Amino acid sequence: MKITILRIGFLGFLLFFAIINCEKIIYTSDNTDPTFAIQPSVIVTADTSVTLYWETSEACHAEVQYGTTTEYDSVYTETENRQLHTIIIDELLPHMTYHYLVRIWDFTGNGPVESDDVSFTTLPNEYSFLREAWEKYTEQQFTEAISLIGESLEINDYDPEIIATSGWIYLQVNQTDNAREAIETAYQLNPYMSLVLVGKTLLAQMDGLPNDVINYCHIIVSREPEWEYHYNPAINISLVHLLMAEAYVQINQVTNAKNQLDLAWSDNGLDPNIADSWVVNGETYNDFILALLAAIHYAMSQL
User: Fold this and answer.
1) Taking phi first (over 0 means left), then psi (-120 to 50 degrees means alpha), and beta for anything else, what does residue 5 get?
2) What is 126-301's CATH number?
3) DSSP letters along 185-214, please?
4) Is-same-fold flag (6-121; 126-301)?
5) Residue 112 CB neighbour total at 10 angstroms
6) What's the rounded Cα separation, in Å, for the pair 49 and 62?
7) Cβ of 24: how many Cβ atoms within 10 Å?
8) Residue 276: is its pLDDT beyond 70?
9) At 77, which helix (H) or strand (E)?
10) Fewest CB atoms within 10 A around its CB: which of 24, 88, 90, 108?
11) What sign results for the dihedral spanned by CA atoms 8, 14, 17, 23?
12) Structural fold of domain 6-121
């Protein structure tokens, strides 16, 4: 069951009451810049949205610049001229710190007048815990990753991406049975999600089932030929090609294996007909298949 988390103070309720019941707008025609009667502040914080409030000395329209840094890569525009200003900015990332500043103009165009930079942090939800679990995964802090993905599952235990992520983490700490259960559950929920299919591929590889590896990889390549997992870019279509390449070696389809390696690492330099090319990362091999496997593993290590 998804839970939306809100935090609102008593001041927020008073301000909303004032906005609804008693706004008096003053229009002034002069050459004087407007001022902030009350500086912008956060009155409601949620996981993916924030509500801001401020007051101006006269009727003004405004622009809110915001972003995760003071570069402010997003803009919210308030076109109506008013003195009591309440806006809701949504589509924010959960559990993320944002900066914002407000610029105001009066109705005759005097301004802009800027507020100070202010920051706020959105509340966590299952997807912020998911994101942070992958951050710990990439840092190889798997105990912390397990704790974070557990928090995510406490909120939402039916999302295949969250469930599959727990499987990926369990694989890293050798909890194979837990990993298998999680990835299989995610697969039942969404058999076409690439993260889930790569998880199935890894399990098939562990089980010595190269044909299953190839089948799962083909599904990913056919559906998302440029795929890259957004929380861990190292898990991408190149990894899929390399897993498929290794599986082809295992069933003695060397040409197909080399083709998959070429798709993942185009300048690998290997030529089955030129023994002098059988060099990988400075090491020379006297057998093409050994060189091919070495190249596959080296390419994986570079992701």
Assistant:
1) beta
2) 1.25.40.10
3) HHHHH-TT-HHHHHHHHHHHHHTT-HHHHH
4) no
5) 14
6) 19
7) 6
8) yes
9) strand 74-89
10) 24
11) negative
12) Immunoglobulin-like (2.60.40)
Q: Round to whole Å and give the CA distance between 194 and 217.
A: 9
Centroid of chain to Cα 153? 17
Taking each helix axis from N to C terminus, what angle separates 254-264 and 237-250, rounded to the nearest 10 degrees?
160
Q: Look up residue 267 and give its two tokens.
A: 């300048």
Tell me the pairing of strands 113-114 and 97-106: antiparallel
Tokens of 225: 């030929």
pLDDT tens digits along 170-224: 999 999 999 999 999 999 999 999 999 999 999 999 999 999 999 999 999 999 9
Residue spans of the domains in the chain: they are: 6-121, 126-301
DSSP state of 228: B
Pull the structure tokens for residue 100. Answer: 């914002």
DSSP state of 275: G
Give the model confidence (pLDDT) of 135-162 as tens digits. Answer: 999 999 999 999 999 999 999 999 999 9
The band of 28, judged by pLDDT with boundaries at 50, 70 and 90, is low
Partner residues linked to 99 by β-bridges: 67, 119
> What pLDDT is recorded for position 279?
96
Written as six digits, the tokens of 11 are 């001041």
Residue 56 in tokens: 């101006």
Distance of CA 303 to the CA centre of its chain: 18
Helices (H), 123-253: 126-138, 142-155, 160-172, 176-189, 194-206, 210-223, 237-250
Could you count the other beta carbons within 10 Å of the beta carbon of residue 156?
A: 18
- Helix or strand or coil: residue 43? strand
Q: Which of 73, 17, 77 is nearest to 43 (CA)?
A: 17
Strand partners for 100: 66, 118
Task: Decide: 291 and 270 in contact? Cβ < 8 Å.
Answer: yes
